[in-house]
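Q: Could you fold this chain for me?
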Amino acid sequence: MRTQTTATAPLAPGGLRVFTALRHRNYRLYWIGFLLSIIGFQMQQVAMQWLAYDLTGSPLYLGTVGLASALPTIALTLFGGVVADRVNRRQLLLFTQAGLGLIVAAAALLVWLRLIEPWHLLALAFLAGAITAFDQPSRAAIVPHLVDRRDLMNAVALISVVWQSSRIVGPALAGVLIGFLGSTAPVFAIATLGSAAMVAVLLLLRLPRFSPEPTSNAVLGDLAQGLRFILGNSLFSSLIGMTFFNSVFGISYIIMLPVIAKDVLQVGPEGLGLMNTVSGIGALAGTFTVATLGDYRRKGWLLLWGGFAFGVGLVAFAVTPWFLPSLALLAFVGWCNQVYMTTTNTTLQAAVPDALRGRVMGTFALTYNLIPLGGLQAGAIATAFNVQTAIAFGGVLVAAFAMAAAVTLPAVRRMGEAEAG
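A: Sure. Below is the predicted structure, expressed as structure tokens.
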């Protein structure tokens, strides 16, 4: 059952609609804590990558550390959704955020004491990935309880704003600190403070008592119940299916950017950095676009056009041999992807029964965590043919799936229209 938020400030006349969800006290506190936590997370990622390569000098080991984090997240996310539906979500978040903070604090201490070894990074990455599998579904499941329903689309978009903006701020700040101080320990320490800030915010939230629906199922039974619900509902199965195609065949273009920069556009590492920056700026603009739309009624068409345009933009990017048009297309596909993803997230949040919210949003998170598989399939196609074919192939599949949904799934087309009544 949905809970009602407390302490909602009136929306100032002429106020920016992009920030309307922040008038809710609970959401405002959560958003600030989330911002600090994610900036710390982005800084921690850079520090971990730098440290892994600095200790070993091995690109393979650098990739292995990333794999050590990704595997437990992929393996346990569905079970994390089950747990999020069985326990108090705020208490679960307190546990996961405290656990992540302790892991980063351990890294800071090991570096400071000069005891850090490569195997420590593998172990810490694995533990962090396992905890993240339970953190992601609970974070997604708590957001609808922090705002009124009419502000949910804006609230989800502002969460995406945090992710996109932190991709720019966090790594840059971490790089400056590592270069200036000559150590990753201060960066890990700051990341620990980000988790501590999130814990403090969670303690300050005023939420009604959470009462999960009683269940006699075992964990696997609850998991099967959630999957049956998704498969038996065309709206949910379609949205999560589109997200799967988007993650595995669409977003893999990001992993292929170094190949495009070096072999196709021939712009070197400086050009690659600019390509990543432009893509991030486009994604940030997409989240602001959705946030500004507020309680937009035609969410179905917004989502479908976003997915279709994302796929078409990828095909155009793949066949463009010039640098400046490629930059423009990267900004465009970043914008389209975030419009699509944020709208999908909002729709799932608004439509899912609260008793199943953790499992459904956990499944949604799992599809997004499959991006490394997308890099694998894109790399295989690029090796067999070329990188342009790999990116274009993914774009065609994403656009085709969006078109198929538009034609065959009226429930998707009509999303949001029922709320207008």
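A (continued): The chain has two domains: 19-203, 219-415.
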